[in-house]
Amino acid sequence: MAERRNIVHMDLDSFFVSVERLYDSRLMGKPILIGGSGDRGVVASCSYEARKFGIHSAMPMRTARQLCPEALQIRGDFAKYSQKSSEITEIVRESVPLFEKSSIDEFYVDYTGMDRFFGCYKMAQELRQKIIKESGLPISLGLSQNKTVSKVATGEAKPNNEKQIPYGEEKPFLAPLSVRKIPMIGKKTSHTLYNMGVKKIHTLQAMPAELLESAFGKNGLMIWEKANGIDRSPITPYSEAKSISTENTFEQDTIDVGLLEATLTAMTEQLASKLRQQQKLTSTVSVKIRYSDFDTHTVQRRVFYTSADHVLLPLVKALFQQLYQRRLLIRLIGVRFSGLVHGHYQINLFEDTEERISLYQALDRLNGKYGDKTVCRAVGMHVGSRKFNPFNGKEN
After folding, report:
1. Is 126 annotated as catalytic?
2. 16 in Cβ contact with 348 (< 8 Å)
3. Closest C-alpha among 383, 286, 290 to residue 329
4. What pTM does this model have?
5. What is the share, in percent, of the chain residues with pLDDT greater than 70?
6. What does DSSP assign to residue 249?
7. What is the predicted pLDDT for the residue at 353?
8. The one catalytic residue among 106, 162, 170, 269
9. Please, what's the b/e burial string for 129-145 (b: 16 or more CB within 10 A of its CB; e: otherwise)?
10. Which residues contact 322 (CB under 8 A, 6 or more apart)?
11. pLDDT (tens digit, 9 = 90+) per residue, 299-342?
């Protein structure tokens, strides 16, 4: 008989807002909006006081201000949020046998097998209190036998609380909740379900899996399993060393800056797309150049967790310009994204507009369906062909 799993999901409550309040106590108890300052910007995070007005993440900032004119708007500080996330990651790393960092403010912890020693819920509670004490930030947790139920339990426990779902209670716990509570169900899927007369999870639980599969393809079966409290996905161990990279060795050494920047653009664009396909974010960007005399130089810079082209491209170009000082022929260039985490934020909400969010989603759908470089920036079209492989810098 397989050993029963004990999976904890931990989520920092209104993380960006909580960090801002840590540095400025005058913000306590007030409706707070964090995100782009322009009229076309979107809300990256908001306080619970603001949520009472119907405001939520990714909402247009202008709509949020209309709903709550008295809300305080803060642009946000990438460096502070990254630093606090790293601090909490270290606390978790020191305290648990196995964990996954699923985003800047979320963690999964695998306590399977630990029940015989201490009691998993007690261990999770002690870890939560340690994080609160050492970071000064509120955090909620859910404990169950899998990632999906634990994540939903965390949502039900918020704010700043904890909830355990005992073995065998997964289906009754989920049954009365809205279908939107299932992590993989977004606005489009929920709208389709509503049109089918499905609003609560208990209705999904009673439906044949085949019906959902016929309506949503392979995702339909996954929706049915999650609605019934079934999730076999493992914990993906967190590692700072994870990275993706590409290098391009030119057939002839070149000093053509236009060609060099076009190549960097093509590689960066497709590596960023790869990040989004894998639902990952990078926190460190590196650029490498090798001159014709084999003298090699690398420079890197930390970046707020992102997978967005428009954030990464200017940084890659700036790093290249910083590196390319000798004006000698170049033999090789490379781009590397490291410090990867699994992330739910597909793009950087601080700077993005609704139009840009929709554009990224459309680009990823087209390139995912028809292949890399189906749609790309014009400057990258002249680098290789539709068969250009950005991960080895050569044509397939």
Report:
1. no
2. no
3. 290
4. 0.69
5. 84
6. E
7. 57
8. 106
9. eebeeebebbbbbbbbb
10. 299
11. 999 988 888 888 899 999 999 999 998 778 999 999 999 988 76
